[in-house]
Amino acid sequence: MVGVGPGDPELLTLKAVRILEKCPSWLAPAAKIGGDSTALTIVGGAVSSEGKDILVHHFPMKKVHSGTAPDPEIQQAWDKAAEWVYDQLKQGLDVALPTLGDPAIYCTGFYVYQTLLRIHPDAKVEIVPGISAIGATAAAAKMSLCLGDEELLVIPAVFENQRLRETLQQFRSLVFMKVYKSMDRIVPILKEMDLLANAVLVECTSMGEERVHHDVEGALGRKLHYFSTLIVRK
Ligand SMILES: C[S@@+](CC[C@H](N)C(=O)[O-])C[C@H]1O[C@@H](n2cnc3c(N)ncnc32)[C@H](O)[C@@H]1O
Question: Distance of CA 167 to CAs 134, 147, 159, 189, 198, Å?
Fold first, then answer.
């Protein structure tokens, strides 16, 4: 599994490029049936796909809750992907799974990795870290996320309002991922807690259409890109 960074092909690591070049087979995640794979598009800016056996595999965009069984459609997608990987490995073909940002952070590829090892414990897997949107959005906003003895909380923006308030109260520095459908809910809470001036919303960082919004109220009622991250820094 290879982290390919947040968008700019220059943010792929040397190791990611080397492993992608070396692997004859690639498994590329796609959010829509028949849609493009963002990870594959990023890779395309740095590594030639000529001669590669590429499976663009659809993973349904449904919520997964830790500790509970996933929706059967999701499990099926993980199983299929894991079986394809194992099939390639059996033929002596190494597989690279390019994944957006860093594989350790909200990454579908990680479920494929876990599924593969559950079904075929003999499979050998290497994880290549990548530059996460967490650091990349902070860089775009030209800010630090934590210094000295400060802590940092990374959360998916699916918490219900009271839990959002509590976390905003408790932590000095927060990164909200997957905020694209939640800003209409989060902005009034930030306003109520007098935190609007502490918030920065970053859309599509390093993807060519990067937008850094210091006026997060402007996001109200607006359709945001899926690749949007909110930083709240007290
Ligand atoms: C499923 S998570 C994947 C995170 C990824 N593994 C990482 O390390 O960045 C998708 C969320 O990451 C954030 N994200 C990913 N790429 C981004 C980008 N280029 N600009 C802003 N946010 C991004 C958004 O919050 C998006 O909803």
Answer: 18, 19, 10, 11, 15
